[in-house]
């Protein structure tokens, strides 16, 4: 992600959720009625996500707040994280009277079918990201799982000759042979479980759920394609 050794050393793993974490009982939280029976537990409640995002926004502002920022949102999974992160960056920037400007661009990658990464990783668009040339780019991605999307994206972005590239990942999954490198800004490192909600989907379902949850076997069967 960044080639700066000092910056690499400053990278933090974020909140590390241990393998034994079974999540919170669904009865303790409010969630859409139409997903009753489709979820196993609330893994990360919405309020915790929002608080963590404020901390990431603070770290990003400390590091690159004196530059103008070109934010590249990775769709579709990244739309909520990107929106909340940029709002928090802007709010904190206003309260410190910084002159930071943010511009948001979007890119779409797709590779998952059911809960599996497929070989068919493709960029749905846009092809031309020449607006990134010479800019400080912050890639905003909801989850780094196998790391394939992130690697492809970094390679693609580098071809447009940005001045600097940093990556913010809300979730990083601990998987065998996963991403070799952490994103520059990490929300949570999570166990190897398929999670949904906060714009993360299972075949397009659950993006409308605010908490990050673990899908149940019933849910997987119900929405399988
Ligand atoms: O690290 P990886 O194993 O590559 O997985 C991470 C990617 O998978 C998901 O995208 P998906 O391809 O499902 O598209 P979507 O965001 O439109 O749902 C997610 O939003 C990440 O972009
Ligand atoms: O756990 C996940 N959930 C939703 N989408 C994903 N894309 C990669 N991993 C995941």
TrEMBL record:
One of its GO terms (cellular component) is cytosol. Residues 51-202 form the Phosphoribosyltransferase domain. Pathway: Purine metabolism; IMP biosynthesis via salvage pathway; IMP from hypoxanthine: step 1/1. GO terms for molecular function: hypoxanthine phosphoribosyltransferase activity; magnesium ion binding; nucleotide binding. Its main location: cytoplasm. SUPFAM superfamilies: PRTase-like (SSF53271). It is found in: Cytoplasm. It catalyses: IMP + diphosphate = hypoxanthine + 5-phospho-alpha-D-ribose 1-diphosphate. It is an enzyme of class 2 (transferase). Keywords: Cytoplasm, Glycosyltransferase, Magnesium, Metal-binding, Nucleotide-binding, Purine salvage, Transferase. It holds the Pfam family Pribosyltran. CDD domains: PRTases_typeI (cd06223). Its cofactor is Mg(2+). Its EC number is 2.4.2.8. InterPro entries: HGPRT, Hxn_phspho_trans, PRTase-like, PRTase_dom. GO terms for biological process: GMP salvage; guanine salvage; hypoxanthine metabolic process; IMP salvage; purine ribonucleoside salvage. Belongs to the purine/pyrimidine phosphoribosyltransferase family. This is Hypoxanthine phosphoribosyltransferase. The gene is prtfdc1a.
């Amino acid at each position: 992600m960044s080639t700066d050794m000092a910056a690499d050393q400053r990278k933090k793993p974020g909140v590390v959720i241990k393998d034994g974490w079974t999540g919170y009982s669904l009865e303790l939280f409010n969630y859409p009625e139409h997903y009753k029976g489709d979820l196993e537990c609330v893994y990360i409640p919405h309020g915790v996500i929002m608080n963590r995002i404020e901390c990431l926004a603070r770290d990003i502002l400390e590091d690159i707040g004196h530059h103008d920022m070109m934010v590249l949102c990775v769709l579709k999974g990244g739309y909520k994280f990107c929106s909340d992160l940029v709002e928090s960056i802007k709010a904190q920037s206003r309260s410190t009277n910084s002159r930071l400007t943010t511009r948001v661009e979007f890119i779409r990658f797709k590779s998952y079918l059911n809960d599996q990464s497929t070989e068919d990783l493709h960029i749905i668009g846009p092809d031309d990201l020449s607006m990134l040339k010479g800019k400080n780019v912050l890639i905003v991605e909801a989850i780094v799982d196998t790391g394939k999307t992130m690697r492809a994206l970094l390679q693609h972005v580098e071809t447009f000759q940005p001045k600097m590239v940093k990556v913010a990942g809300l979730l990083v999954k601990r998987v065998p042979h996963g991403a070799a490198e952490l994103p520059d800004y990490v929300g949570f490192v999570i166990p190897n479980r398929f999670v949904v909600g906060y714009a993360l989907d299972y075949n397009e379902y659950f993006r409308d759920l605010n908490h990050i949850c673990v899908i149940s076997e019933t849910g997987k069967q119900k929405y399988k394609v």
